[in-house]
Amino acid sequence: MGGLLLNAFGNGLCISGNAGSGLWTASAVNLSKLTNINVGIFLFTLGILNVVTNQFLIHHWDWHRFVGEFCFIFFFSYFVNTFAQFFNYLGIPNLPFLIRALISCLGVVFFCIAISLYQRANIIMHPNDDTTNLLRFLYLKGNSTAAQLLDFVVPIVIIIFCTIFSHKIYAVNVATLFSFLLNGVIIAEADRLIFPQLKHNFKRDENY
Questions:
Q1: From its phi and psi, is residue 20 left (phi > 0), alpha (psi between -120 and 50) or beta?
Q2: What is the pTM assigned to this prediction?
Q3: Phi and psi angles of residue 38, each rounded to the nearest 5 degrees, phi first
Q4: Distance between CA atoms of 15 and 33, rounded to whole angstroms?
Q5: CA–CA separation, 166 vs 101, rounded Å?
Q6: Would you state the pLDDT for residue 195?
Q7: Percentages of the chain per state (helix, strand, coil), in multiples of 5
Q8: Is residue 172 a contact partner of residue 159, using CB atoms and an 8 Å limit?
Q9: pLDDT of 44-73, one tens digit each?
Q10: How would residue 207 be classed by pLDDT, with cut points 50, 70 and 90?
Q11: Distance of CA 168 to the CA centre of its chain
Protein backbone atom coordinates (compact mmCIF):
# COMPACT_ATOMS: atom_id res chain seq x y z
CA MET A 1 0.00 0.00 0.00
CA GLY A 2 2.88 2.38 0.77
CA GLY A 3 4.34 1.93 -2.71
CA LEU A 4 0.92 2.48 -4.28
CA LEU A 5 0.38 5.73 -2.36
CA LEU A 6 3.90 7.01 -3.08
CA ASN A 7 3.48 6.26 -6.80
CA ALA A 8 0.06 7.96 -6.90
CA PHE A 9 1.45 10.91 -4.92
CA GLY A 10 4.26 11.38 -7.44
CA ASN A 11 1.94 11.13 -10.44
CA GLY A 12 -0.49 13.54 -8.80
CA LEU A 13 2.35 16.06 -8.40
CA CYS A 14 3.25 15.68 -12.07
CA ILE A 15 -0.31 16.19 -13.27
CA SER A 16 -0.94 19.19 -11.02
CA GLY A 17 2.45 20.75 -11.79
CA ASN A 18 1.58 20.55 -15.48
CA ALA A 19 5.22 20.68 -16.51
CA GLY A 20 5.37 17.16 -17.85
CA SER A 21 4.92 13.72 -16.35
CA GLY A 22 5.87 10.11 -16.88
CA LEU A 23 5.09 8.98 -20.41
CA TRP A 24 2.32 6.57 -19.42
CA THR A 25 0.59 9.26 -17.38
CA ALA A 26 1.12 11.74 -20.23
CA SER A 27 -0.50 9.33 -22.68
CA ALA A 28 -3.53 9.04 -20.36
CA VAL A 29 -3.76 12.84 -20.04
CA ASN A 30 -3.64 13.26 -23.83
CA LEU A 31 -6.34 10.63 -24.32
CA SER A 32 -8.42 12.41 -21.68
CA LYS A 33 -8.06 15.78 -23.40
CA LEU A 34 -8.87 14.25 -26.79
CA THR A 35 -12.07 12.54 -25.58
CA ASN A 36 -13.11 14.66 -22.57
CA ILE A 37 -13.15 11.50 -20.45
CA ASN A 38 -11.71 11.52 -16.92
CA VAL A 39 -7.98 10.81 -16.88
CA GLY A 40 -8.51 8.19 -14.16
CA ILE A 41 -10.54 6.10 -16.62
CA PHE A 42 -7.64 6.00 -19.06
CA LEU A 43 -5.09 5.28 -16.32
CA PHE A 44 -7.26 2.32 -15.36
CA THR A 45 -7.77 1.17 -18.97
CA LEU A 46 -4.07 1.35 -19.83
CA GLY A 47 -3.33 -0.49 -16.61
CA ILE A 48 -5.67 -3.32 -17.57
CA LEU A 49 -3.93 -3.60 -20.94
CA ASN A 50 -0.66 -3.96 -19.03
CA VAL A 51 -2.24 -6.66 -16.83
CA VAL A 52 -3.07 -8.70 -19.92
CA THR A 53 0.32 -8.01 -21.53
CA ASN A 54 2.06 -9.44 -18.47
CA GLN A 55 0.21 -12.73 -18.84
CA PHE A 56 1.67 -13.04 -22.34
CA LEU A 57 5.16 -12.13 -21.13
CA ILE A 58 5.21 -14.98 -18.62
CA HIS A 59 3.67 -17.39 -21.18
CA HIS A 60 0.92 -18.67 -18.92
CA TRP A 61 -2.12 -17.46 -16.98
CA ASP A 62 -1.38 -16.40 -13.40
CA TRP A 63 -4.58 -15.59 -11.51
CA HIS A 64 -2.74 -14.28 -8.45
CA ARG A 65 -0.81 -11.77 -10.57
CA PHE A 66 -3.93 -10.83 -12.56
CA VAL A 67 -6.15 -10.16 -9.52
CA GLY A 68 -3.39 -8.38 -7.56
CA GLU A 69 -2.53 -6.04 -10.42
CA PHE A 70 -6.19 -5.39 -11.19
CA CYS A 71 -6.74 -4.29 -7.57
CA PHE A 72 -3.58 -2.17 -7.64
CA ILE A 73 -4.57 -0.27 -10.78
CA PHE A 74 -8.13 0.24 -9.49
CA PHE A 75 -6.95 2.00 -6.33
CA PHE A 76 -4.01 3.69 -8.08
CA SER A 77 -6.30 5.42 -10.60
CA TYR A 78 -8.48 6.71 -7.79
CA PHE A 79 -5.59 7.99 -5.67
CA VAL A 80 -3.87 9.75 -8.60
CA ASN A 81 -7.05 11.72 -9.26
CA THR A 82 -7.44 12.48 -5.55
CA PHE A 83 -3.85 13.70 -5.12
CA ALA A 84 -4.00 15.78 -8.33
CA GLN A 85 -7.20 17.48 -7.17
CA PHE A 86 -5.67 18.13 -3.74
CA PHE A 87 -2.54 19.69 -5.26
CA ASN A 88 -4.72 21.77 -7.57
CA TYR A 89 -6.61 23.00 -4.51
CA LEU A 90 -3.28 24.03 -2.96
CA GLY A 91 -2.65 26.20 -6.02
CA ILE A 92 0.28 24.34 -7.58
CA PRO A 93 -0.99 24.97 -11.16
CA ASN A 94 -0.75 28.72 -10.49
CA LEU A 95 2.90 28.70 -9.46
CA PRO A 96 5.66 30.01 -11.79
CA PHE A 97 6.75 27.55 -14.46
CA LEU A 98 10.21 26.93 -12.99
CA ILE A 99 8.75 25.90 -9.63
CA ARG A 100 6.14 23.70 -11.33
CA ALA A 101 8.88 22.07 -13.40
CA LEU A 102 10.83 21.27 -10.24
CA ILE A 103 7.68 19.93 -8.57
CA SER A 104 6.90 17.73 -11.58
CA CYS A 105 10.47 16.38 -11.65
CA LEU A 106 10.19 15.69 -7.92
CA GLY A 107 7.00 13.76 -8.69
CA VAL A 108 9.00 11.62 -11.13
CA VAL A 109 11.57 10.90 -8.42
CA PHE A 110 8.81 9.90 -5.98
CA PHE A 111 7.17 7.43 -8.34
CA CYS A 112 10.53 5.98 -9.38
CA ILE A 113 11.36 5.31 -5.72
CA ALA A 114 7.97 3.64 -5.32
CA ILE A 115 8.66 1.48 -8.38
CA SER A 116 12.04 0.44 -6.96
CA LEU A 117 10.49 -0.59 -3.64
CA TYR A 118 7.64 -2.72 -4.91
CA GLN A 119 9.57 -4.20 -7.82
CA ARG A 120 12.10 -5.52 -5.31
CA ALA A 121 9.39 -6.86 -3.03
CA ASN A 122 7.68 -8.40 -6.10
CA ILE A 123 4.40 -9.07 -4.29
CA ILE A 124 1.83 -6.76 -5.88
CA MET A 125 2.78 -3.82 -8.10
CA HIS A 126 1.44 -1.53 -10.79
CA PRO A 127 1.00 -3.74 -13.87
CA ASN A 128 3.12 -1.42 -16.01
CA ASP A 129 5.97 -1.68 -13.53
CA ASP A 130 5.55 -5.45 -13.53
CA THR A 131 5.90 -5.25 -17.32
CA THR A 132 9.26 -3.48 -16.99
CA ASN A 133 10.28 -5.94 -14.27
CA LEU A 134 9.51 -8.88 -16.56
CA LEU A 135 11.26 -7.25 -19.52
CA ARG A 136 14.25 -6.44 -17.31
CA PHE A 137 14.81 -9.93 -15.89
CA LEU A 138 13.31 -12.29 -18.46
CA TYR A 139 14.39 -10.56 -21.65
CA LEU A 140 17.04 -7.87 -20.98
CA LYS A 141 19.51 -9.50 -18.55
CA GLY A 142 18.61 -7.22 -15.63
CA ASN A 143 19.06 -3.90 -17.47
CA SER A 144 16.48 -1.55 -15.87
CA THR A 145 17.24 1.36 -18.23
CA ALA A 146 16.71 -0.75 -21.36
CA ALA A 147 13.48 -2.15 -19.91
CA GLN A 148 12.14 1.34 -19.21
CA LEU A 149 13.02 2.61 -22.69
CA LEU A 150 11.37 -0.38 -24.37
CA ASP A 151 8.28 0.09 -22.22
CA PHE A 152 8.02 3.73 -23.34
CA VAL A 153 7.29 2.79 -26.97
CA VAL A 154 3.54 2.33 -26.43
CA PRO A 155 2.81 5.63 -24.61
CA ILE A 156 4.91 7.53 -27.16
CA VAL A 157 2.77 6.08 -29.96
CA ILE A 158 -0.41 7.02 -28.05
CA ILE A 159 0.80 10.60 -27.52
CA ILE A 160 1.69 10.96 -31.21
CA PHE A 161 -1.75 9.59 -32.19
CA CYS A 162 -3.57 12.05 -29.90
CA THR A 163 -1.45 14.97 -31.08
CA ILE A 164 -2.27 14.21 -34.73
CA PHE A 165 -6.01 14.38 -34.02
CA SER A 166 -6.13 17.16 -31.41
CA HIS A 167 -3.25 19.25 -32.81
CA LYS A 168 -2.17 19.79 -29.20
CA ILE A 169 0.10 17.95 -26.81
CA TYR A 170 -0.44 17.79 -23.06
CA ALA A 171 1.62 16.72 -20.03
CA VAL A 172 4.77 16.55 -22.16
CA ASN A 173 7.38 19.00 -20.98
CA VAL A 174 10.52 19.24 -18.86
CA ALA A 175 9.52 16.46 -16.47
CA THR A 176 8.66 14.15 -19.38
CA LEU A 177 12.19 14.46 -20.73
CA PHE A 178 13.50 14.03 -17.18
CA SER A 179 11.43 10.85 -16.84
CA PHE A 180 12.39 9.52 -20.27
CA LEU A 181 16.11 9.95 -19.65
CA LEU A 182 16.35 9.10 -15.96
CA ASN A 183 13.54 6.71 -14.96
CA GLY A 184 15.76 3.64 -15.21
CA VAL A 185 18.71 5.42 -13.60
CA ILE A 186 16.66 6.66 -10.63
CA ILE A 187 15.14 3.22 -10.09
CA ALA A 188 18.58 1.60 -10.18
CA GLU A 189 19.95 4.19 -7.72
CA ALA A 190 16.94 3.72 -5.44
CA ASP A 191 17.64 -0.03 -5.52
CA ARG A 192 21.15 0.77 -4.28
CA LEU A 193 20.46 3.56 -1.78
CA ILE A 194 16.94 3.17 -0.35
CA PHE A 195 16.46 0.12 1.86
CA PRO A 196 19.39 -1.65 0.15
CA GLN A 197 18.70 -4.70 2.30
CA LEU A 198 15.51 -5.18 0.27
CA LYS A 199 16.77 -7.31 -2.59
CA HIS A 200 14.96 -8.18 -5.80
CA ASN A 201 12.57 -10.99 -5.05
CA PHE A 202 12.21 -11.91 -8.71
CA LYS A 203 11.10 -15.52 -8.98
CA ARG A 204 13.33 -17.29 -11.43
CA ASP A 205 10.74 -19.97 -11.92
CA GLU A 206 8.79 -17.30 -13.86
CA ASN A 207 11.40 -17.63 -16.63
CA TYR A 208 9.26 -19.73 -18.96
A1: left
A2: 0.79
A3: -50, 135
A4: 13
A5: 24
A6: 78
A7: 80, 0, 20
A8: yes
A9: 999 999 999 999 999 888 998 899 999 989
A10: very low
A11: 22
